[in-house]
Amino acid sequence: MKKFFQQYYTNLFLNDRLFAALGVCVVLFLLKFFFAWLGEVPVIATGVLLAFFLIDLFILYRIRQGVNARRFTPKRLSNGDENPIQIEIKNSYGFGVNARVIDEVPFQFQIRDKDFRFALKPAEIKSIHYNLRPTKRGEYNFGLIRAYISSPIGLISRRYNLATANTLPVYPSFINLGQYELMAISHQLTELGIKKIRKIGQSTEFDQIKNYVGGDDIRTINWKATARKGGLMVNTYTDERSQNIYCIIDKSRVMRMPFEGLSLLDYAINASVALAKVAMLKEDKAGLITVSETIGSVVPADRKAAQLGNIMNVLYKEKTRYLESNLEALYSTVRSVVKQRGLLIFFTNFESMSALQRQLPYLRRLAKYHLLLVVFFENTELSALSMEPAKDIEGIYHKTIAEKFVYEKRLMVKELNKNGILSILTPPQKLTVNVVNQYLALKAQQRI
């Protein structure tokens, strides 16, 4: 009895059309007091409405499962990217129905309007497509698919609770890794707004001996091979391989600042994954170190096939902390883990010159043994404010303060360069492109 009640009453909803028809019946009964000639019209109208209500109830509930739906999602979602979601719904009734489908998306999105309305012909299958953009890593729980079905009569709707609730992990951004892979292979960087890099010098890692063609450097002619072959032969060289590339991610409070829904830590994580992919494609070894008030995760540099998955599994769980980073512990860890000279890319943020000065001694010590690249972020809101014309005294004050902070960021770049430390000052949205480009530039210049 309880199951019967749940099936027929808890999933039964009255539509606006029924309330409108009941309102007409009430008006007819009221008018009957003033116009006797209406006679039994109100009673007949009410009876007809009741008959249609029962017919509508019967045709909607006469079969057990009138519609079926499935949700198609990726195995994991990419943080900060548009992820495609698909719902497929099929009408098993012998007549056309009107459907209202509500997908219960994870609460992290704070979306209450994933509401789709459409008509379904008999036995028709329709697909619904939409995108979701997560802004935090972690687990996201999808609920049920609620389908409200009404017949052509349209007095009532029957609710179907379709599909099953499922949980999807949100990993660091991986959807756009293919485009950075293409960058590394083809060097077609202008499509992404990146200038081409002029190669300096010549690598010493031997590749092969080939026939001389016009334009080859005559200094690379292999005279022994030329004597044996009877024609000019030249040596070709390739970029040096198996270099250690470590992404060091600061998890302290300075990385909590949000930008377009993502924190600076998330931008750094997404850039690290893309850089690891490109580095391994260039046959270098990619590694990872995270640091806050203590050392977090350490993934030794490697270029095996599973390395990128290992890095993503570590970064999937990383969160920002509330204390300042301990660079002394970072220096000790780097000295013990990274035995050979390599490229260290340190993702952090400095909001004042005093903050940089506190960390500079440790950065200089790291740069003594490795090629250090410090990546920190431009405050785009302050930059925009500094460019706007001031309209009043308060505006002049705000503009002056904004210009001071923008200028101080540029001073930080000069201070790092003065101490022999490479740096990138970048807007968050351009972080990945700028870091990958800088890595390819250092590779081309044989700095690593």
Automatic annotation (TrEMBL):
The keyword Transmembrane helix applies. Pfam families: DUF58. Keywords: Membrane, Transmembrane, Transmembrane helix. InterPro entries: DUF58 (IPR002881). Residues 209-373 form the DUF58 domain. The chain crosses the membrane at residues 12-35, 41-61. PANTHER family: BLL2464 PROTEIN (PTHR33608), SLR2013 PROTEIN (PTHR33608:SF3). This is DUF58 domain-containing protein.
